[in-house]
Amino acid sequence: MASVKFENVTKRFGGFTATEGLDFEVGDGEFVCLLGPSGCGKTTTLRMMAGLETPSEGKVWIGERDVTRVHPKDRGISMVFQDYALYPHMALADNIAYPLKVRGQPRPERHAEAQRVADVLQIGHLLDRMPAQISGGQQQRTSLARALVTPSDVYLFDEPLSNLDAKLRLDARGFLNHLQRDMGITAVYVTHDQAEAMALATRIAVMDRGRIVQYAPPLEIYRRPATTFVANFVGNPPMNLIEAEARIEGGQLHLQAPGLHLAPLPVPAALATRAPGRLTLGVRPEHLALAAPGAANRIEGRLFANENMGPETLVTVTRTEGEARLTARIFTDEAPRLSGAVAFGFEARHLHLFDAEGLRVPGDGE
Amino acid sequence: MTDHLRQFLGRAGFAFFTALIGAIFALPLVWFLFAPFNSRAELGLAIPEPFSLSNFRQVLENSFAIRALGNSLIQSVGGTLLVALAATLASYALSRSPLPGKRAVTYVLLLFSSVVSGSAAMVPIFLMITRAGIIDTHLSVILVFAGGLLPTAMFILRDFIDGIPRSYEESAMVAGASPVQAFFDVALPVIRPGVVVVVVWAFVNIWGSFLIPFILLRSAEKMPASVAIYSFYSEAGTPIVTLLAAYALLYSLPVVLLYLFVSWKFGFRFFGGIKA
Amino acid sequence: MKRFSLLSPRAGAAFITPAGLLVGAFVIVPFFWVIYVSFTNRTLLGRTALNPEFVGLANYLELFSPHRFLDPGQFGFSLVLTIQFVLFSALLGQAALGMALAWLLQQVPKPVKAMTETVVIGAWILPEVVIGFAWFAFLDYDGGTLNGMLDAVGLPRGDWLLDYPFWVIVVFNTWRGTAFSMMLFNSAFASIPPSYFQAADVAGASSWQKFRDIGLPLIRGHVVTDLILITMWTFNVFTPFLLTKGGPGNQTEVLSIYTYRVAFRDFDFGKGAAVGVVVMLINLAFALFYLWVARKRTPGGAA
Predict the structure, then answer these.
(1) What is the ipTM of this complex?
(2) Mind telling me which residue stretches traverse the membrane in this protein (chain A) (predicted)?
């Protein structure tokens, strides 16, 4: 096991900057997810750890070693690829044992080792099949087995579950989680699926346009998103963001927006010295509930959509004519029967404030 | 109801019309189905009576004819191996290495190869081969074919290799393989179907070609079948039909077998502008 | 700075070398050599075989000499003949027939499709000398299959190779090469989503309307590709030689056969090379046009 460290790493492809000034560390035994939309630079970051791309600037460390210019084969890493990269001309046993083969292990030993790992991953009975003869989920496990068959300092995962259908993805996710708890490996895991990142990571690095915008444990990301981008990206459905007119009057913060009724808030320390102007108000769908029309803190709108999900109902309203929509997760039985005017209530402690640049305004006590 | 009838008649009409075109296409070949098995075959169409293999026996006893088939084999296999080997290496490099201007290289080669056709290049190729002192050798035929077929072979293979995910080699290297190991362990087996296509294509091209060996070879013991077949004409210029028919069938056999092989293996899907 | 790549530039260069040498020696060198030879009076035998003299544009002036340019056996005659040959056998014959077959094959029962395809492709892949011989037998005056059939339906027989040699090689080349256009158009039609045609079916379109309104417009790019390629190939094809040897007289002496005769029968390499250069220029025009079209189209087209 070892840590991974990026020192001011920039990668440019021609005129395009894929990552800029990345500076972060993955601790020994951590499971870090690089989370972001496509094109945010997360895969490039992973490939620079693997040595499949060379940084334009900056340094990459694995443990105590500067590996910036080290060939992938000499980095002491394993990697699972998005398309699995199972060699179609080799049986599963040979696929899994390939890393041992290039290390010169004799055939019986490496096949015994492949068998051991395959048994752990519950594909031990398939070893003489060819990759084309097994299911997608089994292929995924095979690629996992090939990564796990050699002890490595760091394990890299490039969207390993994105080619599975929804049900299998959940299974595999649980399995990975179990494996990580069992083996305590150092892992870096690229995904665009926020639920996957939340479920697996010890820390999440949320990336946007080549930069890390927040690097924190999952719950921290969920509870205190650093920017509107993070707030919007983590959580399903995403956090509701409401543009509001803000002014400070009588030592209190007043927020105004169409359909919004909000009792004045205490002024956060960060806003005490500057005029707030416009702020963005955030509230998660699960923190909204159906409210009586007269409740103190409420948002009103007209019903737009009403999606019954089983345990909950996703109720979407429009606050104004047009685009200003708002979604709530409602767990009561009357939700499916709503129509016309709807009001949601919430508690002030569940509100998030972001300034005009989209940066979080820390509440008191943060 | 009448609509259905009309539709049915329409479909039947199409089928009949298509079959008719097919039949017309088959006409020039029908003679070939019978003549080789007719010991008294002439240019006229006749059903063999009795059905006989004597023509083939005659061919097999003709050492010149057999040697010509052997020569075709030497030249085709030699040329094909050279094309496959050089094209595989080159197109792998064109696809995977960061050589500057590699896209332009492929297009320039393709441009040259389509501009320098057999009819344009027969004079300089003859002169070059003469000056190199390898006129009238198998080697000359092999080299000229290899050079001429390579650009298209490289184009086909580079396209094929470009379509193969780089993650195969990347995963091999992450697993600890050197670039050379990754090439032989992983890349080469994966691109083998593409190489097979090129091999079949090159073989069929060389095997069936007439002009190049016709110009470059003159001693009888080096002639491939495509040229040697013209020795089955009598002094007066009339063909010895029995021999010719059987020989032509034997000579066509590898091409037919390869066609069957390709259509069995790949469903003879269309592979590019592959026959020059 | 050392950057990671699957194959280092040095290894890449080494991988390319064998192909580069072969193509250089047998494609690129001939390209320049033929230009050089075309300015000399090089012959196969005699004094100028070893010590050819520089003759400037003499070979070209002879090719284009105005008062006998179009006489049979002259360059101009072969050029015009070749253009007619391309027009009738490639553009009208192969492309139109290939298109018709490709369209018909989309909608006929599988056995009919398989058999027709096999025969048409067979005409294309069998070795050219075999094909030449098969046609020689097919067209034979006394017992040939064609005359036999004409007899059977009461039509007059013909000595086709003597009386209509040009039309024989036109039909022959159409027959020989239709497979390529058929296969290209077939794969082009197959790449159109079936729902397009089903939507037209629902709207009540006939097969002809579907072809005209949906099929043809959607494969326009492939049609251009096909036309350029078969034009280039037909322009350079030598196979008619196997049927007619360019005769009778010079009636089927297309450019490739003309070049062969000038260089290897008359042993006038300088003049043969000059023809080669003109042919290359024409090829170049086609090839550049093709690359220009291919570049305009999105990548991924066949051929």
Answers:
(1) 0.85
(2) none
